């Protein structure tokens, strides 16, 4: 039994979600092969070869995969699928985009967003916005799974795998890459940060995010997040949203400022190691999951906390 893991990368380096996905794959049993599809991605392949638990790295280096368009990648993975019992990818926007297409092409169902591996065919995954966990078992001939990266420890870079080129290259001709707009920040990336400071609708404006949240985050070397209410109000861009329909985070420390803790937000951060909530409402739902709850006016508390730090 061999397992194919799709490597998420930017043609320069592996994303941390890939390392967590490899950890999940090793728990399923069997040899783990890592697929690097991109253009000019040899550096990624060499890094992938060092991932502990990986026995082989497959490299599809072709212009068709330069931007990892789902229409092209899904055809590549489908062509490789015959030699594998499992196909696994991170539960990121990339994985959620192409892997269901692979499942459709292979005419099998898939298990999405797993948080634990029970055995090779049985997995745990959150349901009802994270309020319950379902244990699901699949009997498909090829098991297709996406992995929630925050639920598994990242694999270490202590391995030494063989690198093998994949000759297959297919351009579906159905889509083309137009452009990307990247938010540039000196702060850590939200989904991989060890500390996250998030603000909610109680901040009342984007200017207050800049005035209160960002100085606190800078003192801690933290990433900045936000609730959906703050994003919908236009205070901050949507790439900062934490929650069921935003980004899933599990940092060592999560500080929620002025966030009531709607069920959808809790689904995106409740696995954080330590949760600190600052809120003037002791009955707010987030009080139920917080390790430390500070009742007070954020406009007074946050500047004082930042000054003490």
From TrEMBL:
Electron transfer flavoprotein alpha/beta-subunit N-terminal domain location: 3-181
Which keywords are on file for this protein? Answer: Electron transport, FAD, Flavoprotein, Transport
Q: Which domain of life is it from?
A: Bacteria
Record-linked SUPFAM superfamilies: Adenine nucleotide alpha hydrolases-like, DHS-like NAD/FAD-binding domain
Query: Which cofactor is recorded for it?
Result: FAD
Under the heading PROSITE patterns, the entry gives: ETF_ALPHA
PANTHER family noted in UniProt:
ELECTRON TRANSFER FLAVOPROTEIN ALPHA (PTHR43153), ELECTRON TRANSFER FLAVOPROTEIN SUBUNIT ALPHA, MITOCHONDRIAL (PTHR43153:SF1)
Task: Write out the similarity annotation.
Answer: Belongs to the ETF alpha-subunit/FixB family.
Q: What is this protein called?
A: Electron transfer flavoprotein subunit alpha
* Taxonomic source organism: Moraxella porci DSM 25326
């Amino acid at each position: 039994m061999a397992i194919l893991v799709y490597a998420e990368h930017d043609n320069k380096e592996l994303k941390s979600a890939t390392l967590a996905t490899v950890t999940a794959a090793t728990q399923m049993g069997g040899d783990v092969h890592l697929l690097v599809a991109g253009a000019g991605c040899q550096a990624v392949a060499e890094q992938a070869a060092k991932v502990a638990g990986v026995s082989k790295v497959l490299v599809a280096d072709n212009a068709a995969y330069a931007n990892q368009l789902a229409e092209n990648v899904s055809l590549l993975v489908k062509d490789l699928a015959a030699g594998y019992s499992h196909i696994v990818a991170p539960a990121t926007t990339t994985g959620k985009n192409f892997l269901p297409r692979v499942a459709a092409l292979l005419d099998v169902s898939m298990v999405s967003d797993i948080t634990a591996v029970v055995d090779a065919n049985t997995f745990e995954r959150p349901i009802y916005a994270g309020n319950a966990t379902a244990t699901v078992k699949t009997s498909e001939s090829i098991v297709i799974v996406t992995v929630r990266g925050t639920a598994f420890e990242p694999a270490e870079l202590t391995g030494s795998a063989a690198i093998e080129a994949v000759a297959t290259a297919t351009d579906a001709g159905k889509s083309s890459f137009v452009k990307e707009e990247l938010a540039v920040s000196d702060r850590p990336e939200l989904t991989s940060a060890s500390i996250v400071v998030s603000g909610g609708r109680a901040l009342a404006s984007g200017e207050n995010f800049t005035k209160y949240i960002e100085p606190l985050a800078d003192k801690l070397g933290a990433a900045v997040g936000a609730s959906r209410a703050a994003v919908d109000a236009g205070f901050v861009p949507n790439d900062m949203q934490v929650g069921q329909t935003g980004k899933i985070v599990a940092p060592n420390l999560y500080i929620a400022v002025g966030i009531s803790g709607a069920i959808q937000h809790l689904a995106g951060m409740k696995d954080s190691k330590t949760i600190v909530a600052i809120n003037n409402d002791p009955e707010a739902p987030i009080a139920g999951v917080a390790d430390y709850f500070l009742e007070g006016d954020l406009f007074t508390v946050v500047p004082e906390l930042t000054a003490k730090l």
